[in-house]
Amino acid sequence: NAGVTQTPKFQVLKTGQSMTLQCAQDMNHEYMSWYRQDPGMGLRLIHYSVGAGITDQGEVPNGYNVSRSTTEDFPLRLLSAAPSQTSVYFCASSLTGTSNQPQHFGDGTRLSIL
Amino acid sequence: AQSVAQPEDQVNVAEGNPLTVKCTYSVSGNPYLFWYVQYPNRGLQFLLKYITGDNLVKGSYGFEAEFNKSQTSFHLKKPSALVSDSALYFCAVRVTTDSWGKLQFGAGTQVVVTP
After folding, report:
1. DSSP assignment of A57-94, as one string?
2. Are B9 and A44 inside 8 Å of each other by CB?
């Protein structure tokens, strides 16, 4: 049981490049989400999904796209990378979107935009 | 709008001494409150949560937290800190009416436990 798996662990991009951060979970969780972590700001929600085919925006969605074609996978796409998107990105999941359930986090993708 | 405040950027404590990490919240409704811990280069790990009932919640690794509705606080405590408790701690809140489960995190508190 791998839990939440994120790839790659590290990535360096040039401004304007695009890329996809991968997230997969093997716990049959309905709810998945993407956060970015920046020093002194905690974690901020980018996008989330309550099930296959259903996604919605979080607090800081601009510059990012998501899709959820399967229960297991929830990729995050950077359309045109900007230096302001340099951050650590975390994917998380929970069994359902019910408010009282804790989330399980991946180990993160450390992204630098030059 | 909901928000979480962790007033201390860093807490320093000697091994064996009590550890307290402070958290206050603001929500328009009843809160669900969580504590997570993050070790270097790792994701967040769930420690404990308050949903309802007893105001003192016990969690993993000997941690506990006390919910205080009048002070809108949810402080994390450990009676005797270990060097291995050194990590980044996050408080988070959800409102009970938010069925989509969006978490609001505090900025985090770095705990340093010295031998």
Report:
1. E-SS-TTEEE--SSSSB--EEESS--GGG-EEEEEEEE
2. no
pLDDT number for residue B50: 93
Q: What's the token pair of residue B91?
A: 């408080």
* CA–CA separation, A71 and A80 (whole Å): 27
CA distance B115 to B107: 26
Which chain A residues have a beta carbon less than 8 Å from that of B9? Answer: 40
Mean pLDDT of B4-11: 96
- For the record, the structure tokens of B42 come out as 């790792």
Residues A81-91: tens digit of each pLDDT: 999 999 999 99
Q: What is the largest CA-CA distance in chain B?
A: 44
Best mutation target among B28, B46, B103 (most A Cβ atoms within 10 Å) is: B103
Residue A106: C-alpha distances to residues A93, B4, B27 (Å): 9, 23, 27
Parent domain of B38: 3-114
Chain A residues lying within 8 Å of B97, measured CB to CB: 99
The domain spanning residue B87 has which CATH number?
2.60.40.10
